[in-house]
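Support request, please re-run this one:
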Amino acid sequence: MFKKCLLLIFFVSLSSYSQVQTVFFVEDVDTIEVITVNFCVNDEAKISEVNIIPEKSTYRNEIEIKKLINYLKGIQYYPDSKLRNNCYDSTFDFVNKKYENAKLGVSDYSKCRNFRTGNYLYDDFRFSDTKIKRG
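Re-run finished. Output below.
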C-alpha cells in the first residue's frame, strides 16, 4: 500500500516535466529503476551525444538503454532553444507496466491516512538528502 501511495504521488509530480518523455513502462523491473544520462545539444538544437552515467543508474537492460539513446538522439529542440551548444544531465524512470494505469481504489484511501504525519525519506538517489516531515 505504501508503494502504491508513493507511486501515485511520483507520477503526478512527473506529469509536467518537459517536452521529452522521462517515464518508460517496461516489464523487467519490480517497481522503478532509473538511468541518468549526460546529453549534448548541438548548434542545430539536436541531441548529438548521449552518455550513460553508471553511478547514477540502476536499470541494466541493454536493449531498452539503446532504445532510450536512439530516442534521445532523435529529439530536435526549437531552433532558438537556449539548450543549444551545451550538455546536461537528465534522469529517466523505467517503471513496471502494471503501474501504467494503476489507480488507488476508494477503499484504499483510508490506508494512506497513516502517511499524513511522520518523517519520511525518499528511496531514490536523486533525493537522498531530502527529508519529508508531515505533521
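The CA atoms of residues 39 and 46 lie 10 Å apart. The chain has one domain: 2-134.
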